[in-house]
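Incident log, structure service

09:12 report received: a user says their structure output differs between two submissions of the same chain.
09:20 pulled the input from the user's history:
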Amino acid sequence: MISYFTLAVYIFCLIGILTFNIIRFHFFFAASFRSKSQRLRPLSPTQEGGEYPSVTIQLPVYNEKYVITRLLEACTRIIYPSDKTEIHVLDDSTDETSQYIDKWIAQQDHEKQKRIRVIRRSDRDGYKGGALQHALPHARGDYIAIFDADFVPPNDFLLNTIPYFKNERVGFVQTRWGYLNEKENGLTKLQAFGLNAFFKYEQLARYTKAYWLSFNGTAGIWRKTCIEDTGGWETDTVAEDLDISCRAQLKGWKYHYLNHVVCPGELPVLAEDLKKQQYRWSKGGAQNIAKHLRSIFKEEIPLTQRILRVFHMGSNFISFFILSVLLLSVPMLYLKQISDIGPWFNIGTFFFLGSLFIIPYYFTASGLDRSKERREFYLVQTFLFISIHTALALQNTMALLSGLFRRQGNNHFHRTPKKGGLRYTHQDWDYLRISRFPWMETCSISYAILGISLAVMWEDYSAIFFHLSLCLGNFIILRYSCLRFQFKWRILGEFKDKGIA
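09:34 re-ran on a clean worker, output below:
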């Protein structure tokens, strides 16, 4: 009885993985065979009689001393009538970032200084969402452009995006992310590889098919009246961008996604920062499901639209199914040896093999070179990215459960520190937040090795792909987690050489 119950749960989770991959393949198909989207002519900064709406550029900042001046310089270079733009620095910093901001502004000419305003709060209540809501009444612009501290908006950003607000019901415009440090290490390459698929296929398919689409927190513009109509920025989730996107579309506001406008930003260099970022995204999605699920099912829309809207907020729920399959894989190997569930287990394996058609979703996202070597390289990257996703399943599942059952509490916002291409020094110990021993990865690798060993001993390789992915993914994370420990010991060595420690 236990054998068949375990088998039923195992197959159910495999079907869950297959379902998520079918939806992603639908996005791949829809984006690949889409009709050409209309590109509006950008505004010309020299046109006569042109109407330029006023724009407020908001820069939410918290302890980003390495990248803040680069961001300010990029924003002041944006081509747009100076009397129609203002820059608000929403500074919640508790380190020397505030001094860097004040010093940089003091060095600018009077015209630039008039356009820049620093808004500081006495506390970090609500974190990024709280800062945006606090600054909203101070914004004089008809539109609000938002950039995170590590992004570098191109000079023609406003000229290329403002024309898409011609329709009065367009509430926001989202652009595609680029990557300033894609080639810095293996981890950044894999992140760019995955994000390319998200923006090239999922976001583009949502736009062309008029599905729900999310504002990605940065590199986009909002109509101020849309923000006000939705009730402003709310802080009861750690994904305030997804939350306001859902509320806006529930109220009937439209959007544009511009795949041809690229705004580059930095990717996390260290595994611990990537894990915190993924945890925040997973938890935020779960919190938004708990918050908006009832409203979604009250709408008079087809069932498929409802499913896609839930998937929109809970795409990381695939981590729960992956983790369940991983945990059950070793018991299933044992049960196959002592019971007659072998044929049924092979049916479950069929569902897993069926999900492999998701490979084109990632395989083609970065573009395919004609050379055989490049095709093999993209295929290897696909496997490595799937391995990373498998390795993050445990912590993402913990985030999902926290978001579903503790939506109103424990909303601490962990920022992802960026270094702006500079080298860290011994003064960055607190900035980097040196982590403890990576016990989660160590335990996962041990479990994967156990599964591989049993598979070899019993000559049953039906689940070995899961175990190899888990093992490889955690080795990659452990490798880039060790950078922190290498850094820590290097700093200790510098202290000892100087007689400090």
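09:41 both user submissions now match this output. Likely a transient worker issue. Closing.
09:42 reviewer note: Residues 195 and 354 are 23 Å apart (CA to CA). Residues 464-497 form the longest helix (34 residues).
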